Amino acid sequence: MTAQPNIYFSREISWLSFNQRVLQEAADRKNPIVERIRFLGIYSSNMDEFYRVRVADVKRKIYIHLDEGEIEKADKTKLLMEQIQEKVVGMTEDFERVREDVVARLARYNIFLLEDEKLSEYQTTWLKNYFKNKILRHIAPILLHSKVNLVSRLNDSATYLYVAINNSGKNTQYATIEVPTKSLSRFVVIPPENSRKKKYIILLDDIIRHNLESIFKGFVDFESGEAYSFKMTRDSEYSINDEIDESYVDKMSESMKQRLIAEPVRVVYDEQMPSDMVRNLKKRLKISSYDSLIAGGTYRNFKDFIGFPNVGRDYLENPKLPAITSNDFAAHNTVFDAISEKDILLYYPYHRFLHVTEFVRQAAFDPKVKQIKLNIYRVAKNSRIIDSLIDAVDNGKKVTVVVELRARFDEEANISWSKTMTDAGIKVVFGMHALKIHSKLCLVSREEKGELIHYAHFGTGNFNEKTAKIYTDFSLFTRNQELALEAENVFNFIQQPYRRQKFQHLQISPINARTKIQLLIRQEIQNVKEGLSAGITLKLNNLDDQLLIDDLYKASQAGVKVRLIIRGMCSLVPGVKGLSENISVISIVDRFLEHPRVMVFENGGDKRVFISSADWMTRNMDFRIEVGCPIYEPKLIKQILDILEIQFQDTLKARIIDQHQSNKYVRRGNRKKLRSQLETYEYIKQQEKKKDAQ
C-alpha cells in the first residue's frame, strides 16, 4: 500500500496523546489524592524520556536534512517540531492547573505543601537547623564564569537552582546548585508545632532557597540572592566507535560519557524567573533555535513526586491488592513437578512474581539441573534472580546469561551486573552489536531418567522484581520440548548468528516474526472472503510499524473486525471510511502500567493466541531479538481471552483512540461500572479458588 497523507498519526504526537491520558489520571478527582500527585510524577518522568529520545531524534533529523541539502524534508521535520512544541505548551498549562488543584485538595486532608514565604517562625528555625545539620554537607555550588562550560557540568536526571547573587554596585554573580535528591529525600516532613492533625511537607528546593545566605556568604560578596529552578534534558542517543579496538563493555562505558555531554534538547524553567536571568541561562546553555525552552511552574523534575509520601490516612492512596499465589505451583513440592503436569500461565502483578524467582532459585540447587540460560534487559537493583544464578555456579551448574548493555537508561546498571556475574563465574554474553536483545527467556535443562529435559519461561516483561509489582505482564512456564528446544535455538542464534536456526513455533525478530504475523493477518482476510469466522485482537504497548499497519488496513477493507488495546503510541488511524472503519482502538491507563503484548487471530473459529516481548514497531520487528510464543493449552487460551474481554468492557479507565486523538473515555451508557484492572484481579482470584477446590 502506498503511503498516503493523514493515514498515519505522527508517533511523536501520538505519544504525547498517551501522556495526556496519564495527565487525565492526575486530573481525575475520583482517584485518591496521593495517587493523583504520583500520576503528576509519572507524567513528568514520561516527558523527560520523550525529550531525551523522541524530540532529540526529531532535532537530529533536522540537522541531518539541512546538512545533506534536503530542504523539503528539513522543513517537514521543523513543522513536526513546531507541532510538538505547541502541544507541549498546552499540556504544560494543563499540568500546572492540575498541580494547583491537587495541592489545594491535599490541604483539605490537612496535608500542606509549604513554600518558603509561607513559613512560621517555628518552621523557619527548625528548617535552618535541618539545613545546617542535614543538607549543607551535600551542597556544592558552581560559580559561573567564562571558563565554566555549564552544559558539560549538568546531569539531566537532576534538578537545579539558578541563583543570582546580588551586590550593590557590582555585576550580578550567577551560580547553579544541584538539589541533592540522590542523597536526601526531596520531601521533608516538618515536625508539628502544635496540632498533630496537620502535616507540613516542604521540598528540598525551597529549603535551599530559604538558606542561600548560609551557602554563599563569606565566599562571595552577598547582599541578597534569588533562586529559581530549572532542568535540562539531553539527547539520550549514543554512538559507539566500532573502529576502536576495545571491549564492548568499555565502548558502552564511553557512550555513557557521551550522553553526559550531549547537547540539551529541552530546558524547563520556573516561569517566575526574571527575563535577565532567563537570557543569561539560555546563553550559558547554548540553546539553539531547535531546542525547547519552556516556562513552567515553580518545581522542576516533578518525577520525584512518583514517590510522594502518604503522611495521612490510608484511604488517600489506592488500597493494596495482595499478590495471588498460583495454586498450580503451590500444589507441588517443586516448580519442575508443577510444570511437568501442565503449562502454567501467570499474570503479574496479580500473581506473585515469587514464582519466577523460585523457578530460578530451585534450579540453582536442584541436583538434577545441569544448565541455566537467561537473558537480561532490565533487572531490579537488588536482584534475587542474579543472586540465584551466582548460587547455581557455586553448585557446579553451567550458567549463561545474555546481557543487553544498551537497555536505554539501564546501561550503567547492566554493565555493573555483567562484571559481577563474570567475576562469579557466570558465562556472560553481550549478543550482537547490530541487534538489541529484548526477549524474556529463561531455559533450565534438567537430567531426568538419563535424558536432558528442558523447562522454558516465555514472558512479556522483564525479570525485574520491582517492576513486576506495577507492570502487568504474562509469563508462560512450559515443559513442551518443541517450544523449549526453539528457546535453546534463540540462545544459539545470539551466540552464533551466522548459523541458521529453525523456528517452527516461535515468532523470532528479526528472523521470521514479521513474516509470520503478516501470514496470520492474510489468513484472516482469506477466511472472511470464504465466509469463515475472522477477526484480529491485539494488545500492545506501541503500534507504529507502517507495513503492519497497512496489513491491518487491508484486513479492515476486506471486512475483518480488528480490535486493539494500545497503551502508548498508535500511528494507526481508526474509523476512516474505506480504510479502517472496521478497526477500533482503546487505551487503558490505571494504577498498573499495561505492558503485555498479546495477539489473537480468529482462524476460522480455532483461535490462535500468542504472547510476545515485541511491540509492533519497526525496531522490534527488524532491529531487536524478540520472541513471540504460541499458547497451546486450551485453558490458558481461555484465560487470556477472558482477561482481554474484561479490558474491552472497561467503562472507567478505557479511552477511545479516534481520528482526532481526543482521549474521550469509553461511554458507560446502561452498562455497569467496570474497572478492568480490579475486575481482572477478582477474576484471577476466583480462578485460583476453583483450582484450590478441585
Automatic annotation (TrEMBL):
Its cofactor is Mg(2+). ATP binds at N46, Y471, R567, H595. Residues 8-113 form the Polyphosphate kinase N-terminal domain. Residues 123-308 form the Polyphosphate kinase middle domain. Keywords: ATP-binding, Kinase, Magnesium, Metal-binding, Nucleotide-binding, Phosphoprotein, Transferase. The active site is at H438 (phosphohistidine intermediate). One of its GO terms (biological process) is polyphosphate biosynthetic process. It holds the Pfam family PP_kinase_C_1. It catalyses: [phosphate](n) + ATP = [phosphate](n+1) + ADP. GO terms for cellular component: polyphosphate kinase complex. Mg(2+) binds at R378, R408. Its EC number is 2.7.4.1. Residues 335-498, 506-677 form the Polyphosphate kinase C-terminal domain. One of its GO terms (molecular function) is ATP binding. The keyword Thylakoid does not apply. An intermediate of this reaction is the autophosphorylated ppk in which a phosphate is covalently linked to a histidine residue through a N-P bond. HAMAP family: Polyphosphate_kinase (MF_00347). Catalyzes the reversible transfer of the terminal phosphate of ATP to form a long-chain polyphosphate (polyP). Belongs to the polyphosphate kinase 1 (PPK1) family. NCBIfam families: poly_P_kin, PRK05443.1-1. This is Polyphosphate kinase. It comes from Paraglaciecola mesophila.
